[in-house]
Design brief:
About 75% of the residues lie in helices and about 0% in strands. It is mainly alpha-helical.
Length: about 200
């Protein structure tokens, strides 16, 4: 059991990284990765929402399945995620105003962040138990943070390098993001070989 949980956790960070492998949550990835503090803050907020949403949604899905209402899955998941993001926004505004200001418009965008919805649906599709779902969500959140922090560093270096005029701005950012994503394909198979899952 512990080996399976470890395999799920590390595969979500490295092998199945939501941003760099599955390409979910790209709007926040490109929008908030300019500064390290906002990248870390956004990553923490997304991780909290992912874990809490998974903890709330997993039992809801069991009820939907028991009552034959599985077709309501996406609608209910989005409502739960939107509610959690609103509560998180109120919390940050009240207790951590600098982070609330630095995240700006990207904080409400967690509601529509497909990585958050993706992790909740993946847990159901994979047939994970409740603990496995929580570990998957935590691993996905940490993987999101790894991608954001890593790309924040890369982006700072790329923008300081003065690329050719035709690559300035978004083009060089997308080229750098694709190279970082390409590097993560090298992790394929490593988790399965280590943990035998």
């Amino acid at each position: 059991m512990a080996a399976k949980l470890a395999a799920i956790f590390f595969s979500m960070i490295l092998v199945n990284n939501y941003v760099l492998v599955k390409f979910l949550g790209i709007c926040a990835f490109l929008g908030v990765s300019k500064r390290m503090d906002s990248a870390v803050g956004m990553s923490c907020a997304v991780t909290v929402v992912m874990v809490i949403a998974t903890a709330v949604i997993w039992p809801i899905q069991q009820l939907l399945d028991a009552w034959g209402l599985g077709y309501l899955q996406t609608v209910l998941f989005i409502l739960v995620i939107a509610t959690l993001v609103q509560l998180l926004e109120l919390f940050l505004k009240k207790f951590i105003p600098p982070l609330y200001v630095s995240l700006g418009v990207y904080l409400p965008l967690i509601t529509t962040n497909c990585a958050v919805l993706g992790v909740t649906i993946l847990n159901i599709d994979e047939g994970y138990t409740f603990p496995e779902s929580l570990v998957c969500a935590l691993g996905a959140g940490i993987g999101f943070m790894l991608a954001m922090v890593m790309f924040s560093i890369v982006r700072g270096r790329v923008e300081a390098a003065k690329p050719p005029k035709c690559f300035e701005g978004l083009p060089i950012t997308l080229v750098a993001a694709s190279i970082v994503a390409l590097s993560f394909t090298g992790f394929g198979g490593i988790v399965e070989n280590i943990f035998g899952a």
